[in-house]
Design a protein that fits this description.
The complex is a heterodimer of chains A (173) and B (574). Chain A has helices at residues 16-26, 55-66, 99-109, 129-139, 167-172; strands spanning 2-11, 30-38, 44-53, 71-77, 82-93, 112-116, 120-127, 144-149, 153-156. Chain A is α+β, with helices and mostly antiparallel strands and 173 residues long. Chain A folds into 2 domains: 2-78 and 159-172, Alpha-Beta Plaits, CATH 3.30.70.260; 83-153, Alpha-Beta Plaits (2-Layer Sandwich), CATH 3.30.70. Chain A is elongated and about 60 Å long. In chain A, 29% of the residues are buried. Chain B has 574 residues and is an alpha/beta fold. Chain B has 23 helices and 19 strands. Chain B has a 6-stranded parallel beta sheet. In chain B, helix 1 packs parallel to helix 7, helix 3 packs parallel to helix 5 (83-91) and helix 16 packs across helix 23. In chain B, 57% of the residues are buried. Classes of the chains: A alpha+beta (173), B alpha/beta (574). The interface between A and B is medium-sized, with 25 and 24 residues.
Chain lengths: 173, 574
Amino acid sequence: MSLHTVSVQLENKPGALARISQLFARRGYNIQSLAVGPTEREGISRLTLRVDCEEGSLEQIEKQMHKLVNVLRVTELVPGETLERELALITVSVAPDKRAELIALGQVFGATVADIGRDSMMFEIVGVPEELDAFEEVLRPHGVRELVRTGRIGLRRPRTGSTRRMRSAAVVS
Amino acid sequence: MSRMLGSDAILRALELEGVRVAFGIPGGAILPTYDAMARGTVVRHVLARHEQGAGHMAQGYARASGEVGVAIATSGPGATNLVTPIADAWMDSTPLVCITGQVRSNLIGTDAFQEIDATGITLPIVKHSWLVQDVRELPATLKAAFHVARTGRPGPVLVDVAKDVQEAEFDFAYPDEVDLPGWKPPAKVHARQVAAAAQAIAEAQKPIVYIGGGVVNAEAGAELLAFVQSAELPAVTTLMAKGVLPDSHPLNYGPPGMHGSKWANWALNKADLIIAVGTRFDDRVTGKVSAFAPGARVIHFDIDAAEVGKIRRADIPVVGPLKQILADLTTELRSLEADGTSPQTEPWLRQLADWREEFPLRYGSNGDMLKPQLVLETLQSLTAGNDVVWTTGVGQHQMWAMQYLVCDRPRSFITSGGLGTMGYGLPAAIGAKAARPDATVVCVDGDGCFQMTCQELATAALERLPIVTVIVNNGWLGMVRQWQELFYGERYSQTHLTHQVPDYAQLAEAYGCAGFTVESEDDLESALVDAMDCGRTAVIDARCAAEENCYPMVPAGAAAVDVIEMPDEEPARA
């Protein structure tokens, strides 16, 4: 098993996302994270999926997704050729006298303070998902009250040239 | 462009798509469309007695004709009753357009009377589905629905139409083209891959062509025959492919799999090259996958890229339309032959012929009761050479039909393969007869199966469809009983139906059909002849030996080479 990031362009039609998530559930593939939003083209959404699976399963996933009428394109985002980002909001318990310590800690990770309450504060951090993991780890001992992550999004780096479809997609079309 | 209601637009779309017959049942949310039907259409509507029946009729129609089947139902229970046929069409790649009424747009999501999320419920078993809430989207949606159902790997689609959409007036124009940027079934064939396949075939010593239902859907029977003959290649045909390569062709070794012959299983499993054509390595064929054809390289041709490599890795994958692939392949093989390279298959063919001789299909003659195999053999001998379309239910009778009926034409054997839907046979026969009125249509059914959809006798009788249903009545859920005998310590839990209840001949008469009861070998032939000649819908209750098992058999999960044949001396059991 290994982790893969898959980027899917799909028509923004009713049920399109349900069809994809259904496909994963039905065929027993595990989605680690999923982020969806609009793209440069009107009516087209981009999904970034993080999947834990074997190489053969990845090919099956991709082929099955290609059969969905609303799916326009499926690409694997290969590490090194891809820029990946994620955003997290993290609320931590903190006594007033410990705030400065935590803010300094946040600065190391490039996190900003989004809000401060009587005995808690909220960090906002944007970065590669592994950096978010690390920051979360550091905050844990202080008492993480609530945490939300957007799920990773990714795009191929411009300098690696135009995006190419996955191997089996070439067989399809 | 003309002004009309949404309901009229649905019927105009069906007409423009060339639909001759549609199957369905009206109800609240689809009433406007049935009202439009009363205003006039060239589409003939067959009124089913249950939406499941309508769906299977549409499937039988589609599979007998090669056209898209159409089923119409109302919302809620109408739609849920269509779920089984949709699932069946999904598994067996049958082109099907289901049109369901939906509650009014303003009621959607309120748990209104007979409201159900039809597109949601069917999501995993359709190629695509649409909920139409704006009448202006109706023409393009129906155009797309038919296009998606019939192109690429065929299958079911669902169009759920809100009642107010059917009632709305608009300017109707049917598009010439579909606007589906994400739907691009493979249209081209990779010449290099075909050449590689031809080369591998030419070098094979023990090749076997493994033919599936995809060849039927591709209408590629002629190309298949030319391919098989061009290099004297032996073939096995799955349940779904029966007839696409004539059963009586000497190179056709018939069905492999769980109840296939020993020789066909051995041919497939001991080959050095499997040429899979439009087939999906179903577990009922492969048995234990890790033990399946261990010495074979695999060439896999399919229209659906997702089937290639799904179960068994393909050494040479070729995705594309089978008709063209097979034609190109034959050309390649001929040119290789001209260069002096062609497969040296004679020893292999001799081996296969020896196996066929050594392990014939057989059954005992013990006991007083009619043997089910004899029913099938008699049906075959009575209809040999005729234009017959067979349909079946699912179970022992289906497997005996597969073993004993000789089908030499594509689309002449219509059965529920993937889903294994008991009750498929009778409604599928009605659909097949509607599609092919000149053909003799015979449903071979089991007593358990028949009781699941027998209300459709009313449909057949009133539509005056002279189809014959032969019930191989062993009084049991026979295949389940067989598994209980072999694998569950002979504990026959809840499988005994009895031979007598219902009295099928009387039931047939009650539905306005002709009924016959056969209890002995002596009456069999005359009853079959009478039923086929009576010109009415007929039911034959062939009361057969209760405990006859279907052999050969590969137990589920066993290696397919480990075929169990019928025990030599099966003790007579009353």
